[in-house]
Sequence to fold (367 residues):
Amino acid sequence: MKKYNILLFSIIVIVVTVLTITVSLTMEKKYEWSADICAPKEYPIEVFTGAVGGYFFSHMGGFSNGGWGSGNGDSDIKAPLPSRMDMTWLSYVDNKFYTGEWELPKEKIQQLFDEGFYGGPGLEKQTYSVIKVGFAPKGMVVVWVMGVGQQVEVARFQAHETTIDPKVITEEEKYMFEKDYTKDMLTYDGTISKELREHITKFGYPAPEVYEVYREKYIWKPKVILPEGCKINSLYIKMCNGENVDPYDRPLEMKNRAIPFMFQIYWSTKIGKKEQKFVSRIAFTRDQEYWAKFLKPDGDDDMPIDFDKNEIRALFKNHIDKNKAAEIIIKIDPTKKEDSEWVTDFYIEQGEKKYDFKQICQDSGKL
Fold:
């Protein structure tokens, strides 16, 4: 009789445990989200197979060369946020397959999704909707969460080299294993543009470790000086670690941030009863056609191809103390005849020291 009671009690415990787990899984909060992939334009990749939770990737649509931290995603599934991720991909430049399986920081991701952020005209509450996976050289992987105008890094992983078992390769996947596949792809304009190939031929590829260096942060904030009577409507900043921010109607606080590679400042002034809107754009590059290319119908705001060798990186590395606050000062004067001269002062200030930015491309005008 005693053994029977013990057995009955064990069965009840098992049933209750299973029901608890089932209810827990059923009750787990669901979010509208999608996953997306990206890779530096100089280091294109192609996913062989992978998944972010229940969001799957394969060689079908798994190619990426859009730029570090770039790309979008549509919220096309409603499900609990992912807790795991696995990826196997081909790096064209390395000519190697990498693979890895990792636990995602689900609590951190969920907190960001729940808290959201404020942006857009009127500071409406916005939500994150995309989990983005970035593939850098030598198997480095970075994960961000993205919303409209906002992107935050949540994890960094390291994959390892792998060899794909020929038995698992389908007929549709055999092209990835052809002898000169990666070599041929790197000469194709759709993989690496002619302009970028010429740049690589002249200056070489960015050092693989640069994408790790891009993650370094400094304590800084921007300070925009406008003519009297003008106001900032929005300040969009993209940083070299793939993060970006787009605050409306409010100044950014002093905070640890990666080095910026571009600013887009939307501002306005009253002319009579009418509000005239303007934009001033600044990118850290020697390429004086950067914004002209950006404004084309198919243009993008990706990191300039010469950013890894730009003066701002050397300036931060050699002169800016990571433990002390700094301000990036931007002064705009719309009375200048040429709109490429509206930004009259552009420098970083830390304590008593001031450093001018000279290798920039700027563009301003009415909206």
